Amino acid sequence: MSNRRDLEQAMDLDRDFFARHPQRRYRLRLMQEAEREQQARVSGKYIAPRPDIIDVIAVEQVRPGVRVRSHFSTRAGFDPDLPEEACRRIFFAVTPRRLLKQREFLLKAKDGADGG
Question: How many distinct structural domains can be found in the chain?
């Protein structure tokens, strides 16, 4: 079973990606085991790996250090290394409404922090 450190390492993947690609706001990546276990703790449902399906995390960086993540499953062989616009479209297609509302709150907080 993964611990908090394993989950933080999964989150570091996103931080490091956006540090290397400051022009990007969206990305897709494979779900990490620590995220599967976190999902099980939160929802009571473990997302087990399957041979014909991959689990992907869609990420939006609202601002440095603040990210919204959403999970989706797709066919094996899907390549999550996509351009920004494709990642953005997929993020909005797969992200539940409740997370999009949280995203809106974070964007408003960002605007207020920037003075407007």
Answer: 1
Q: Which pLDDT score is estimated for 106?
A: 78
Alpha-carbon gap, residue 54 to 77, rounded angstroms:
8
Range of the domain at 23: 4-113
Classified as helix, coil or strand, 61 is strand
Strand-pairing partners, residue 69, are 59
How crowded is residue 60: how many other Cβ atoms within 10 Å of its Cβ?
Answer: 24
**CA distance to 32, 85, 104, per residue, from 44 (Å):** 17, 33, 27
**Mean pLDDT score across all residues of the chain:** 88
Give pLDDT, residue 113.
54
Question: Which of 30, 47, 34, 32 lies closest to 6 in space, CA to CA?
Answer: 34
Residues 44-70 have pLDDT tens digits of: 888 889 999 999 999 999 988 889 999
Lookup: tokens for 48:
């087990």
Whether the per-residue pLDDT at 1 is higher than 60: the answer is no
Element housing 29 (H / E): strand 26-30
